[in-house]
């Protein structure tokens, strides 16, 4: 059995646990009038833990994430239920609420990255891309030896930027000037509404690092695409760590450097 999903919350919110769509496997009473709740897992993966705990359980219960291996001095068992859940069950029962940073103080000069960035058409590998960022991702795909096609098909009201050969399937990839996972909402909605039934990912303007792993985080990916439940999770590459991925990303940038006209 995999490590459980866990949260801690005020004892005043115990009624929320009692009304939970999926009953916790274990509830502990902690000092300082707090509770710890655990949902045992059948198939939890570390790379999906943030999508379940931070983006579902935490906002649903108004709680704080808890590492399931953490020792809790003074904890007293007050509820135990012999049940375990799959990632699919957790994703279905608890609504996804992406993490957002606190809004900054109003300032006339503050605008979103997509507003201030104007795309620079760029040619790479004899293909004319609509933006230098798209060309950079094509160069990145070449460097990691993932075959790609640029704007290869028309979907319902939407033309994807890439389809790449990844694993044993064709994967749709959408490129956006995003700096964090919450910047992908519009692109994710396009993909979900396009009729595409296969694997899909959104990538942005940098290579990220995931809090539970050294694996490179390239963006977000659509999970369980063949199931009735579909949810977005960080796109982690298990055989590519953050540091070498960042070096490859810089090399891809060098391949498509903008040069001023003379």
What does this molecule look like?
The protein is α+β, with helices and mostly antiparallel strands. It has two domains: 2-93, Alpha-Beta Plaits, CATH 3.30.70.1790; 113-255, no CATH class. It is built from seven helices and 14 strands. The strands form three sheets. Strands 1, 2, 3, 4, 5 and 6 form a six-stranded mixed β-sheet that branches. Strands 9-10-11-12-13-14 form a six-stranded mixed β-sheet. The protein has a two-stranded antiparallel ribbon with strand order 7-8. Strand 11 (169-175), helix 6 and strand 12 (200-209) form a beta-alpha-beta unit. Helix 5 (132-143) crosses helix 7.
Rg (C-alpha, Å):
21 Å
Counting structural domains, the number is 2
Number of helices: 7
**What structural category characterises the helix and strand content?**
alpha+beta
């Amino acid at each position: 059995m995999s490590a459980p999903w866990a949260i801690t919350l005020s004892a005043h919110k115990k009624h929320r646990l009692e009304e939970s769509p999926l009953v916790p496997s274990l509830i502990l009473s902690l000092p300082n009038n707090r509770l710890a709740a655990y949902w045992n897992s059948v198939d939890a993966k570390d790379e999906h833990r943030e999508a379940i705990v931070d983006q579902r359980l935490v906002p649903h219960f108004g709680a704080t994430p808890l590492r399931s291996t953490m020792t809790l001095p003074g904890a007293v068992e007050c509820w135990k239920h012999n049940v375990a859940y799959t990632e699919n069950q957790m994703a279905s029962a608890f609504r996804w609420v992406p993490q957002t940073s606190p809004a900054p103080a109003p300032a006339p000069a503050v605008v979103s990255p997509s507003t201030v960035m104007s795309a620079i058409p760029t040619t790479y590998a004899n293909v004319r891309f609509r933006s230098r960022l798209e060309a950079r991702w094509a160069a990145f795909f070449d460097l990691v030896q993932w075959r790609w096609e640029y704007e290869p098909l028309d979907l319902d009201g939407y033309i994807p930027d890439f389809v790449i050969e990844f694993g044993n399937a064709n994967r749709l990839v959408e490129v956006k000037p995003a700096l964090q996972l919450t910047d992908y909402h519009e692109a994710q909605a396009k993909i979900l509404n396009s009729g595409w039934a296969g694997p899909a990912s959104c990538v942005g303007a940098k290579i990220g690092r995931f809090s539970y792993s050294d694996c490179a985080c390239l963006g977000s990916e659509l999970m369980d695409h063949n199931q009735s439940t579909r949810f977005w999770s960080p796109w982690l590459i298990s055989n590519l760590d953050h540091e070498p991925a960042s070096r490859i990303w810089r090399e891809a940038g060098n391949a498509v450097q903008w040069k001023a006209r003379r």
